[in-house]
Amino acid sequence: MSYCRLPPNYLSTTSVYGCLPPNYLSYCRTVVSLPTTSQLPLCTVVSLPTTSRTVVTISLLSRMDQIQHKYVEANGLNHHVAEVGTGQSVVVFLHGFPEIWYSWRHQMIAVANAGYRAIAPDWRGYGLSDPPPEPEKASFGDLISDLLGILDALSIPKVFIVGKDFGAWPAYYFALLYPERVLGVATLGIPFVPPGPVTYNKYLPEGFYISRWKEPGRAEADFGRLDAKTVVRNVYILFSKTEIPIAREDQEIMDMVESSTPLPPWFTEEDLEAYGALYQKSGFRTALKVPYRSFEEEFNLPDTKVEAPSLLIMGEKDYCFKFPGMEDYIRSGQVKFFVPNLEITYLPEGTHFVQEQFPDKVNELLLTFLRKHR
């Protein structure tokens, strides 16, 4: 049995399907015992012992090609939404930076297989979604309003919300503003943070990446020297480390990564191609405004206590754990003052991208949470 990686556009070529029997997926699965699908390359070539014919068996992408893509109009913009599954219970996945709907590919397939309907939008100005007319005026409030508009357009009354990175903010704040629409909230890497000034920069050197990216024009000039794919590559490498990205005074953030530095082992060149193509389309103009230049935004929240059942999955090697006060805020239980029904799970080797690094474990945790509160 041999495995090899196929080109990213392999599924888009009709010739692949022309040589295979209609039931080839189920046929291959009954003959060959495949490894855990989330850890396989994008496609698997399996040589069956009973025939000289080579059959293409699709692991993750056998389900990826079932993900539907549509545009949903909300607040005057067309929002790209990826969707899979037909269950009555709906899980909406909210990405962070430098991510996109694609970062949830493993989780979308897992929850759909478990009988849920999974949807994952690209935020306004990200990926295939329309940019706002004035990206410099984009806000977290816009994202919350967009989420409400998307759910209304799709006639979805209640959802589980899963947020990663800055997606935790709209996930929790949506739960505060529209508690009747939320069955539960799960976040990865970022806990609930009450509204108020972000003060991390006061305790970190000037080269702290958020301080640099908050400065209008600086990140644009830094990113502008490179193509979108290289920017995503560099950020993925930086954010996969255990240390907070902090540049020297004579150094820009992008210069912190050598061109020879390899990608994390769980992030493939095909993954990078997918991200690069989407950010090539959208650029980083809106992404720099939300989140990095919107942390001081004021919210008119009716309350700051989230009553919905909640889950925090925290990688213990996530650099965010080293933000001043963050680890103590989580481990001491202070966060539960704001989120009393919170479960916290730590992944000892988990970095900032736990859903891609350890998809099977994250899927298991999410499904346990979903079933408990369905």
From TrEMBL:
Family: Belongs to the AB hydrolase superfamily. Epoxide hydrolase family.
Lineage: Eukaryota, Viridiplantae, Streptophyta, Embryophyta, Tracheophyta
Keyword match RNA-binding: no
Every AB hydrolase-1 domain range: 90-322
Keyword line: Hydrolase
Domain of life per record: Eukaryota
Protein name: AB hydrolase-1 domain-containing protein
Stored InterPro entries: AB_hydrolase_1, AB_hydrolase_fold, Epox_hydrolase-like
Gene Ontology MF, one: hydrolase activity
Keyword S-adenosyl-L-methionine listed: no
Source organism per UniProt: Rhododendron griersonianum
Pfam families given in the database record: Abhydrolase_1 (PF00561)
Transmembrane region(s): none
